[in-house]
Specification:
seven-stranded mixed β-sheet; five-stranded mixed β-sheet
């Protein structure tokens, strides 16, 4: 079945006893047993609920996985995933990483005895592997510098050494990129972003092929309690229905804006993986079917960056991404504020860098908004 059809109709019809076209919200915390030692398959919504199950089955199908587990936020999903590891274990992560994930690794995982080191290239990752290494965690493209990692090449390294490969696929979504088919073991989503697509709810997803891995993640979710609610599951299901058409339109508009930005004297560098001069362009073409709607760009001076943030009218100066409304973010003060200044600057996340999540507005209107904000 084509991925756009799965987006619209979902995958699981277990709930469908009424003919309801929209997935019903099963607003029940608990479910009655038909008899002693018997179950309908649903006992308590922290373990499983029909609305949540439909979302999980749909996302698993979109990613080409066998199982998915839904969480109350993207960071709840990352936190649960880290419970797979024990004190003394070592994780290698992308050198350029979402600030919230870095914050978790630095302040929580480290406290819990899990060591995290950071690498960028394949060679660096191989050098970082030690006997205690258990997994490699990558974003591709990365947030906010839009670096691209060759998933299949990393998978070859991790499989040879029996390590887990975890890929954050939030930016491209399964519509444009399917890491499991390239060798990943776990795919992570902040469902708050493109899957939901409307800036109106939080969610996180973990998708796997392996039952043992799924069983461990389900146990962790049930035990720690960071499950997604039926109401929020409904909103994400509703958002996914338009995922395909949103991703196509946002990509089209992002390409137009990226090309326009490259011609602006006030702009020093444009980071968009769909531009042929992007260092990861050929890898992106090989492992993805699209380039997405995320752009970062550096201005020639910090004053212009602040000017844009304070003067955009159609575009909203706000954290988050992936929704129908275009959002512009100042990573230095927002998504990556907790990164030590020296490390932040070393990664290029300085006072001149802005990140733009392209929405569904007219490309001409968005370009005009940026133009007037720069003037």
């Amino acid at each position: 079945m084509d991925i756009s059809t799965i987006c619209v109709h979902g995958y699981d019809k277990r709930y469908d006893t009424t003919g309801a076209v929209a997935v019903p919200i099963f607003a029940s915390a608990t479910f009655a047993h038909p008899g002693v030692g018997k179950s309908t398959g649903f006992d308590y919504s922290r373990s499983l609920n029909p609305t949540i199950e439909h979302l999980e089955h749909t996302v698993a199908a979109l990613e080409g996985g066998a199982y998915a587990v839904a969480f109350s936020s993207g960071m709840a999903a990352v936190s649960a995933m880290m419970e797979l590891f024990a004190p003394g274990d070592h994780i290698i992560a992308s050198d350029d990483l979402y600030g919230g994930t870095f914050r978790l690794f630095f302040h929580i995982s480290q406290k819990n005895g899990i060591k995290v080191s950071y690498a960028n290239t394949l060679e660096e990752i191989e050098r970082e592997i030690t006997p205690s290494t258990k997994a490699v965690f990558i974003e591709t493209p990365t947030n906010p510098m839009m670096r691209v990692t060759d998933i299949a090449a990393i998978a070859q390294i991790t499989h040879e050494r029996k390590l887990l490969l975890i890929v954050d696929n939030t930016f491209l979504t399964p519509y444009f990129q399917r890491p499991l088919s390239l060798g990943a073991d776990i795919v992570l989503h902040s469902g708050t972003k493109y899957l939901g697509g409307h800036n109106d709810t939080l969610s996180g997803m973990l998708v796997v092929k392996d039952f043992i891995l799924y069983d461990s993640l389900r146990f962790i979710e049930k035990t720690t309690g960071a499950c997604l609610s039926p109401f929020d599951s409904f909103l994400i299901i509703r958002g996914i229905k338009t995922l395909a058409i949103r991703m196509e339109r946002q990509q089209e508009t992002a390409m137009a804006i990226a090309r326009w930005l490259t011609g602006q004297g006030a702009v020093k560098t444009v980071y968009y993986i769909g531009l042929p001069d992007h260092p990861g362009y050929e890898i992106s073409r090989r492992q993805s079917s699209g380039f997405g709607g995320m752009i970062s760009f550096s201005l020639r001076d910090a004053q212009t960056a602040v000017k844009i943030l304070e003067n955009v009218k159609v575009i909203k100066y706000a954290e988050s991404l992936g929704g129908v409304e275009s959002l512009i973010t100042y990573p230095m003060l927002q998504t990556h504020a907790d990164l030590p200044e020296s490390e932040r600057i070393a990664r290029g996340i300085d006072a001149c860098l802005l990140r733009l999540s392209v929405g569904l507005e007219s490309a001409d209107d968005l370009i005009e908004d940026l133009k007037q904000a720069m003037a």
